[in-house]
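Researcher: Next entry in the queue.
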Amino acid sequence: MNDELTPEERAALRARIVGAAREITPVGAHRGAWIAGSIAAVLVVGIAGGVAVTSTLGAPQVATSPSPTPTASIVEPAPTPTPSASTVLPPERPEPAVVLGGRCEALLDADEAGGFIPEAVASPFANSSQSTPPRQNDMLGLLGGLSCAWSTDQDGFSVTVVPSAALPDGTVDAWRADERCGPGELCLAEKTIGDLWVGVNWWDPAYNRDPSPEVTAAVERVRAAAQDVLSTVEPRLAGAVGVPRDEVAGAPLPACAELDALVSDWAGADVETGYPSDNVASGPVWDIAVAAGVARFCGWSSYPTDGSGRALALGFYTQPLLGEPAAADLEERSMRPIDIPGTSAAWIEDGAPNGVSTTIIAVVGETRLTVYGNGRDTGEWVDLVSRLAADPDLAA
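Model: Structure for this entry, 396 residues:
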């Protein structure tokens, strides 16, 4: 069956549509013509379309592929990688460094020191194993600082330099609070130079002397000299760098009281806290080392009054990270090696047969322990050091 219209049928249909359009009531002459023409055109197109649709629906469906349409190639920029938390590296820590390489002669040479105190020389006991405290310059070197001293038999001064970042809170206030900051010691000039703090100490001319105009004048002289020393070293410290070792605790070591029971058990007697002498480390410079955890001093004594026991005086320094002493220090004191359980190395300075003034230097890990005293024999001192070496409160 053919669904297409014949030419005659198409003509009749067109005439009917045009006639219907003419019957529409005009609103305006041009507008009516425009509307009638538009309707006729739409209907004619609709008929033609209807015929086409009728024809298409009646025909079998043919699968056709759409013609490919060329498209522009879009290149997207590669995304910028965002570093994750695991890939962000922390800033590198600066390498440990000691101010001026720890060389006191770079701070003041012999001629300059002699200008402040005639015939002054670098103090032989300021940084030895026999000084109080032992090896102070090495100890402060762990903080990136240094401490240097020059003296004669009658007069002397020292210069201490510490990175400001390693300086415990309150140090400067303590320095300024009382110039008589230790037995026979004056804390005088001090200043922050760049990233470093500098303090000048002087032997107190008034120590153990009655007040007098001469004593007052001597104190005024060293006050002025301390300011001159500070002015001399300042340009040499401008731009100098000091960085503490990474292993420095930055906090005090366990309190000596933690060792009371150990010492009492070893001594076989009740002991009192404190070494029976004023020749112990003290003052603001020592306090800096203690607060930073690079030194500690502990002392005990026992003086039975009923004759039932032996008198005892015991003191010892704990100095983490110092390791073994220099061979020259050991030779100077004629210290000989000795085996002590729990230590990696130990040396003893023998006293009298009854143990008077015995000194033992021992190394446990990297911690140096200096034990001295009287009232016990050599075997007992060795036993004490062995017990200390095994105790977790020996060092942080």
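Model: The chain has ten helices and 13 strands.
Researcher: Noted, moving on.
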